[in-house]
Amino acid sequence: MTAVLQRVSISRTRELMADAAAQYATTKLQDALKRKKLVRLVAATGASQLDFLSRLTAVKDIDWARIELFHLDEYVGVGPDHPASFARYIKERIIQPTGIQKHHLLDGSKDPKEVIEKANAEISSAPVDVAFVGIGENAHLAFNDPPADFETREPYLIVTLDEPCRKQQVGEGWFKSVDEVPKQAISMSVRQIMSAGSIICTVPDERKAKAVQASLKEPVTPEVPASILKTHGDVRFFLDGPSAKLLLEDNPAAT
């Protein structure tokens, strides 16, 4: 547990957490840009990433023109014009602020098998350098709900969303009711996420505290999908006080 905590940054507030995560992500991207002509980035979406991405995309010292962008997941049946579309989120919160030209967006309104086939070919053409992820209230990683598939080597796959995951989407304001939340999604697989050179995991809010505690303290298991993150050789977790609450209760020295 001590080794895991050495890779955890805990800030008092969500805003300070976002600042710390953005500074660290800037360093990781700049380092990668020194080594490579084109850096491949995977970005998470959702409410947990808003402050972090707002700060990161305002950084002027990143050569965004040399970054190739992918995203983690998209609802099946939801097109890029839908308010809850993650492709729309990516466009509005990353592509437009930075001017990134090379990007690969998942279109949930198209045949998911065709979307996956295309996405798999695109992301498999070269290694991913940096991945931004979060942790769901049910400890999901991307849309890999428990029990997650830790074995498949397919980069993207169709997954079924469980009830806690769908309720989270309503709680965050993306849909008005659980019935409106699609039951399936296209998600980047766990193995594909874990293949990234560096992973930056940003998790604010007290509603994520149990998932954070289980992911960082308990054994690695598909029942806690995000627990696998701590086995990555270059991962950093950014938490705020509320999301780290239970972790700090277990480990007072971490304060």
Account of the protein in words:
It contains 9 helices and 10 strands. It has one domain (2-247): 3-Layer(aba) Sandwich (Rossmann fold), CATH 3.40.50.1360. It has 255 residues and is of the alpha/beta class. The model has no long low-confidence stretch (mean pLDDT 94). The strands form 2 sheets. The chain has a 7-stranded parallel beta sheet with strand order 1-10-9-6-2-3-5, with helices on both faces. The protein has a 3-stranded antiparallel beta sheet with strand order 4-8-7. Helix content is 34%, strand content 18%.
What features would you highlight for this structure?
7-stranded parallel β-sheet, 9 helices, globular, Rossmann fold, 3-stranded antiparallel β-sheet, alpha/beta
Mean pLDDT reading = 94
Helical segment count: 9
Structural class: alpha/beta
Largest pleated sheet = 7 strands, parallel
Give the secondary structure arrangement, pairings included.
Layout: H1 2-5, E1 8-11, H2 14-35, E2 39-43, H3 50-56, E3 67-71, E4 73-75, H4 86-98, E5 102-104, H5 112-123, E6 130-133, E7 156-160, H6 163-171, E8 184-188, H7 190-194, E9 198-203, H8 209-217, E10 235-240, H9 245-250
Parallel strand pairs: 1-10, 2-3, 2-6, 3-5, 6-9, 9-10
Antiparallel strand pairs: 4-8, 7-8
Helix pairs in contact: 2-3
